[in-house]
Amino acid sequence: MTFTFYPRLAQETKEPIAIADADVLIAPVPGACGNVGQLACDILAYNWNLHRVGTCDFEHLAPVIGRDALFDDTSEGDSHAPSGSLACAFEVYAGVVGASDSERRNVVVVQIRSDACVGARRAFVEEYVDFLLHFANAKRVVLASALPASVGEFAAQIGGTKWRSARGDDAFRDTCSKVDLIDLESNVFPSKEVMQQSVDPHWALMDALDARDIDRRVGCLVAVCSEGDNSEDGAGMALALSRACAIDVNVPDVKLVAGSAPVTYIGPWRVPRSWDAVFGTRAMRREMFF
């Protein structure tokens, strides 16, 4: 395999948390125009109370590091106490969630907070496909991505966000159809020759999957949307993913401490507090840019 998984040790047992035979693996399309898929993965990991079970290292994925995007320091205890884990380029969350058929499902949600190194998108795509097809031995893999409003040729496709399905086997496409997630219009796809040469993360990934995912175990949900603030579209994508995977929407109970910040919701979802501090919304010391 072309990736290395570093499991996080459980605090109680000091043993690696096992991930195997997942019912569904949900992951974003990296480096896409707009971060709708990545925002949706944050929402699902946060609202499904999934645990970060480890990280992955890829040769061609640029490293990043920052404050844990999902840690909520106002729910209980000292609101100023440092906690959580440092965010990095590729994170893996896992847990058991309720399904709409009253069953329970083992779910893995991936978050990518970086992009491939310059000139290495095709190389990273091959590494990422290796991960999608082999990690956790998942029965179903669903990708989340966004396309700009300018894609395609139909004027009717430009405007409000539209949710579409792409790829996947017959069972996945049937499930999407039942919850009104229709197929992506054929005119959106470039020619096969163009797709084979493309470094656009959508088409490069689709091309690599078509070559290796013969049984079409990997499906994809696409948001055809406009540029701008993607928060609401990220919440909409999270809802579309839940419906396509037949998983219940689960919003955690909130226990606020005195003086804590109010909780923000978009649709049925509670959103992470890190969304309240989007880059550019706070005054910053100019010295950091020199």
Write the layout of secondary structure elements.
Blueprint: E1 3-7, E2 24-28, H1 36-47, E3 51-58, E4 65-66, E5 87-88, E6 90-98, E7 104-112, H2 121-134, E8 140-148, E9 162-167, H3 170-178, H4 192-197, H5 201-212, E10 218-225, H6 231-244, E11 265-266, E12 269-270
Helix pairs in contact: 1-6, 2-5
Question: Brief description of this entry?
Answer:
The chain has 290 residues and is of the alpha/beta class. It contains 6 helices and 12 strands.
List keywords for this structure.
290 residues; globular; alpha/beta; Rossmann fold; 6 helices
Describe what you observe in this structure:
The protein is an alpha/beta fold. It has one domain: PAC-like subunit (Rossmann fold). Helices cover 23% and strands 23% of the residues. The protein has helices spanning 36-47, 121-134, 170-178, 192-197, 201-212, 231-244; strands spanning 3-7, 24-28, 51-58, 65-66, 87-88, 90-98, 104-112, 140-148, 162-167, 218-225, 265-266, 269-270. The strands form three sheets. It has an eight-stranded mixed sheet with strand order 1-3-6-7-2-8-10-9, sandwiched between helices. The chain has a two-stranded antiparallel sheet with strand order 4-5. A hairpin with a 5-residue loop joins strand 6 and strand 7. Helix 1 crosses helix 6 and helix 2 (121-134) packs across helix 5. The relative contact order is 0.20. The model is unreliable at 77-82 (pLDDT under 50).
